[in-house]
Write a structure and sequence with these properties.
Chain lengths: ~325, ~290
């Protein structure tokens, strides 16, 4: 990296600085270099993020300590309190909250279970020539409007839809298919909608977890199962982590899928928050609910990471012993 | 890449994996196929198939409300893609070239990371009062325009994606080229334009595409920031879900689906020309 060892005659504009080791960060040269320095270049992004994310979200956090003064005003903040938090946690909110959490966690789990063998197949078993096409096919639903895809499920699951009629015709069902507007329909829909977000990071991680290492593992006498558990899976862990994050976080705040497929029985926390802002016009309670949603999402993610770290420590300890034995 | 040993003989596991792969593909594609099939429904209600025909396409294309919502969506998506690509590229280049441990780089990474983990509904309820404060109370009138609101909020949503894609793209590349250009006397602007940008180009393109589709897909955030006359297409569909869905929705969605496929094929082509393997292309596209 040291560029100062044998450098040709420095250009005029930087001659003042020749002996400096850190010249990469500090390039003198008047106004233009100040504009193109890394820190200055980050300024617009900083400003945008501050003005359109940090401040508005901070405002909502502030609102959660306010109150609704009368029927016609959405928010007042002249005296602040924590009172909106217990108010937000009404019995119906708490039950919806846990139902949402269950759907999100179970949905993330199902996505992982479905996507892991699929991504493994895609990365290792599909011939490289066909893999591009297969990958492009995985991307297609990802680029289709997710609301429209959900409508596809609504048509399919409806009691007088074609699936219901076929299943009745084949004798699988006695009556019409009774799944639309239930929590099962919501579960099917969310797994479907977020599955590509799980497949892609898993694929990338498994693909990167080198063929060479797998072959080395076979050469050293490990079986297929052992190779998968000891080589492929540990190396795919970053993909598992990012896949779970990519699925769980948006899923936990989503309510569109649930509204389309779950109807009245599919209400999610996100819907309750939206109602506070749109219909009830009680911003303080809505903001408090939103804070509860964010904090709980972060807590679940944090717990997940802790479990992962713990699991890695344990497996690392377990794996370190038989390797020595195997060498002997 | 030799795969002789995996294809020499097919074990039961291999067969099982192949079947699983095909099943997952079926799962991924059936709802899309259903929508395309039902777009040829001549009936009045989407889910109730009454005869095959192109009625829905004709009446959809002649429906001013539908067309204007699709146009709004496309305008917002293009705008959001441009805004988030400009800001995200600057941010990504800055982060990739940041000295280790610089406070502004860590802070920006943290904030952008937060934007990614914030549920969309929270962004929605944050923008709603903020646009009123800035646009109405402070009198910055451009922010009262529905399209501007959509573009700003969508761009905020995808700026982090572009930033991280561009940063990842540049992270693997040494700064030697830029140093060499500097040594040879190139001005900072020339260095940026002639070296950094071309290297980052596939990432920038992928980021732009990503923010375009993220914007087209966006429902929750849009439903909060939308103004009368600027209802984007997903919000139109979402409100139709609660009333009555007509086959026009499926027909217009099929049209947009085909357009998206064309755009994707084009981008894939460009990325391939830029010399990336398919895996890399997917990596950049998926962020």
């Amino acid at each position: 990296m040291s560029t100062q060892a044998a450098r040709p005659t420095p250009p005029v504009n930087r001659s003042a600085n020749t002996g400096q080791t850190k010249e990469k960060e500090k390039r003198p040269g008047g106004l233009s270099s100040r504009f193109f320095g890394a820190s200055a270049m980050s300024f617009p992004t900083w400003a945008y993020a501050l003005f359109f994310f940090v401040i508005p979200v901070a405002l909502v956090i502030f609102y959660s300590f306010g109150y609704k003064p009368d029927q016609f005003t959405a928010i007042a903040t002249d005296h602040l309190s924590f009172d909106r938090y217990p108010e937000a946690m009404s019995a119906s909110f708490v039950s919806t909250f846990f139902a949402t959490l269950r759907i999100s966690l179970f949905g993330t789990f199902l996505c992982l279970i479905i996507a892991l063998p699929f991504a493994y197949w895609l990365a290792i078993k599909v011939s490289p020539a066909r893999r591009s096409l297969a990958l492009a096919l995985v991307m297609v639903p990802f680029w289709t409007n997710f609301l429209v895809r959900t409508l596809g499920w609504q048509i399919m699951l409806s009691p007088d839809g074609f699936l219901s009629q076929w299943m009745q015709g084949l004798g699988i069902l006695d009556g019409p298919l009774d799944i639309l507007y239930t929590r099962s329909a919501v579960q099917i829909g969310v797994v479907y909608n977020y599955l590509p977000l799980m497949i892609l990071p898993l694929f990338v991680a498994i693909d990167a977890s080198g063929q060479k290492l797998r072959e080395a593992s076979y050469d050293l006498g490990a079986g297929k199962v052992k190779t998968f558990l000891r080589v492929t899976l540990p190396m795919a862990m970053p993909g598992v982590v990012s896949g779970c994050l990519l699925v769980f976080i948006p899923l936990n705040g989503d309510y569109v899928t649930a509204t389309v497929l779950g109807g009245a029985s599919g209400s999610m926390v996100g819907q309750l928050i939206a109602n506070q802002f749109n219909t009830a016009q009680n911003w303080a309670v809505g903001a408090a609910m939103a804070m509860i949603l964010i904090v709980s999402t972060l807590v679940v993610v944090g717990l997940g990471f802790t479990l992962l770290k713990l699991g890695q420590t344990i497996t690392a300890r377990l794996n370190s012993v038989p390797l020595k034995d195997g060498r002997a | 890449m030799s795969r002789k040993n995996t294809f020499a003989r097919r074990t039961p596991t291999d067969i099982g994996l192949h079947i699983w792969g095909i099943l997952v593909f079926a799962y991924l594609f059936i709802p899309i196929a259903v929508i395309i099939a039902y777009s040829f429904n001549n009936g009045k209600v989407l889910a109730n198939f009454r005869g095959f025909g192109l009625d829905a396409y004709i009446s959809g294309l002649n429906n001013d409300v539908i067309i204007s919502s699709i146009v709004t969506s496309l305008q917002a998506a293009v705008g959001a893609a441009i805004v988030s690509t400009v800001f995200g590229t600057l941010g990504g280049v800055a982060l990739a070239r940041a000295p280790k441990g610089a406070w502004w780089a860590l802070g920006l990474t943290a904030i952008l990371g937060l934007t990614l983990v914030t549920p969309e509904i929270v962004d929605g309820i944050s923008f709603l009062p903020w646009f009123v404060t800035v646009g109405v109370d402070w009198g910055i009138t451009p922010l009262n325009n529905g399209l501007v609101r959509l573009i700003i909020s969508h761009a905020m949503f995808s700026m982090a994606i572009v930033t991280f894609i561009v940063r990842a793209r540049l992270a693997g590349i040494d700064t030697q080229l830029e140093d060499a250009a500097a040594d040879l006397g190139a001005s900072p602007w020339k260095r940026f334009k002639d070296i950094t940008l071309p290297i980052a180009a596939p990432g920038i393109l992928a980021g732009a595409l990503m923010s375009f589709t993220v914007s087209l897909d966006n429902t929750i955030l849009s439903s909060f920031v939308q103004q009368p006359g600027y209802t984007p297409w997903p919000v139109y569909i979402f409100s139709a879900v609660r009333v009555a869905l007509r086959p026009e929705v499926a027909a217009m969605s099929t049209v947009m689906f085909l357009l998206t496929l064309l755009a994707l094929a084009f981008v894939g082509f460009v990325l391939r020309k830029a010399g990336g393997s398919s895996t890399e292309i997917i990596k950049t596209m998926a962020g």
